[in-house]
Amino acid sequence: MKKILVVGGAGYIGSHTLRHLVHKGYGCVALDNLSCGHKEAVDDVPLEMADLLDKSSLKNVFDKYDINAVIHFAAFSLVGESVSNPQKYYQNNVCGTLNLLDVMLGHNVKKIVFSSTCATYGNPQYLPMDEKHPQNPINPYGQTKLVIEKIFGDYASAYGLKYIALRYFNAAGASTDAKIGESHNPESHLIPLVLKAIKGERECVKIFGNDYDTPDGTCLRDYIHVDDLAEAHRSALEKLDAYQGFINLGTGVPTSVLEIITAAERVTQKKCPAVVEGRRPGDPARLYADNLKAQEILKWKPQYTNIEDIIRTAWNWEVNRKF
Ligand code: UDP
User: Could you give the 3-state DSSP secondary structure of residue 114?
Assistant: First the structure.
């Protein structure tokens, strides 16, 4: 049976997508170097431990399985770290993807769905952001993803690569059975930090700025449930013969930092200790998606449209988590 190779399959979005594909009857193989991923997040499918910078072990995986298409999640994604250590980001994200493409083409595998990001747009010139919005990333992380998007275009023209790059807004939530969820070390994302403060695992959550030009002064983001992302990846995989290009994945609904905190308090029925700090460098005041293209091309709509429902899945995971 032909397999889908899920690169970064032990990571947050990768593991949810892997589960979704298996549930829909796809044969899958996960590949991960476990630098950020968790082997406990991969169930029922083979997990190949290989690093994208080690081409020979990549080749072994492609020799071992009959791979039909690749979904590529493996990347470093901390904006602040990408500023202080761009070498790590260009090496891993760009060189790693180039190696993956080399091995794919060497094995005549020409289909790829890729994790891109709204960070490729940089500061918004208009909102909601559609795919035509100019791309001027303001940090090396966003640059690495944009470089890879450009590589796909050139490889498509020259070698017939079939690609869809999905530009995510803020991934959030966990599987409904709470068996897998978000687990970063160190954690830097808002929702898990709010839940850890509520649990008493952290003293408080820091609100990065309450003097933005937004209704409550805190930043607005577009939080999209990880299972909605997973569904969109499957749809993209199935559309690769008909369409190549770039598609936003967001709900289109802006939610502020304070709204996240109060929604988490309602879900958990507990207070969240919070303090206001200065702005975090590089944070735009507002970021939210125009997701019409995803609706048209992928025939996809987010199922989670209420932030409390998203946070409830994250909370169930947070209180039961095994890794
Ligand atoms: N944020 C915050 N405190 C934190 C972490 C994040 O106030 O401890 C804010 C951050 O400034 C942004 C939003 O929460 O406006 C989402 O940040 P996150 O790091 O989760 O995702 P990003 O938008 O950077 O991808």
Answer: strand
CB atoms within 10 A of CB 24: 12
State if residue 255 touches ligand 1 by the CB under 6 angstroms criterion.
Answer: no
Centre of ligand 1 to C-alpha 256, Å, is: 10
Ligand 1, atom 20, residue with closest C-alpha: 189
Distance 207 CA to ligand 1 centre (A): 8
Q: What share of the chain is helix, strand, coil (3-state, %, to 5)?
A: 40, 20, 40
Compare 37 and 281 and report the one with higher pLDDT: 37
- Report how far apart, in Å, the C-alpha atoms of 284 and of each of 7, 108, 117, 182, 194 are: 30, 41, 15, 23, 20
Tell whether the model's pLDDT for residue 281 goes beyond 90: no
**Ligand 1 within 6 A of 190 CB?**
yes
Residues whose CB falls within 8 Å of the CB of residue 177, separated by 6 or more in sequence, listed in order: none
The 10s digit of each residue's pLDDT in 163-178 is 999 999 999 999 999 9
Contact 5, 31 (CB under 8 A): yes
Which residues are catalytic, by number? 141
Domains, the chain, ordered by start: 3-172+224-249 (3.40.50.720), 190-222+252-320 (3.90.25.10)
For residue 283, give the ligand 1 atom closest to its CA.
11
Length of the chain: 323
Cβ atoms 21, 6 nearer than 8 A: yes
